[in-house]
Amino acid sequence: KLQTALFATAALQGAGFSFDSLHANLTLHIEDSRIQQVPLRSGELQVRALPNRIEVTSSFNAEQMSATLSGHGDFSETDRPKFDAEIQLSSFDLSKLLSDSSYASNLTLHTSFAGSGKSVDDVSGTVKLSLQQSMYQGRELAPLDLNFLRDHHNTNNKRLSMQSSLADVEFDGKFDLDV
Fold first, then answer.
1. Cβ atoms of 59 and 68 closer than 8 Å
2. Backbone angles phi, psi at 95, to 5 degrees
3. I need a labelling partner for 43 at 20 to 30 A (CA). Which of 33, 78, 126, 177 fits?
């Protein structure tokens, strides 16, 4: 159950009705709102649509927490759409969003991903996660970097890789991941 009180102003302008001819901008400004038990001081969401492309940027500030997101999608090549995004969280407390004090946290992290593909079975790309000094459920979390690579461009020689400060794992060859 998501309890929200949202006070926002929005502007939408553009032309076109199909994804291959759309030119549009959406801007949403949020002030003095609440999501769950978190007072949201300010937030902004911007979406820009161009023919077969979309760009999204957003930022939110609540108490000591902040979050930013930026992402792009390029659908001009219908057989292999491309995407990328970056997410940054600072002093993020999951307990306030989940309304459960057992998830008390102070998380600071940066995540980025980029890839291409039409379905979960043929997506190739990278994910990078960098956790800064944080706290979760009363435990200190040391900084940690994780890098994932999934390459499914060649069905006879696929690659799945994870590199981190804890361990490295690599799978190469002809395999399927049932998701």
1. yes
2. -60, -30
3. 126
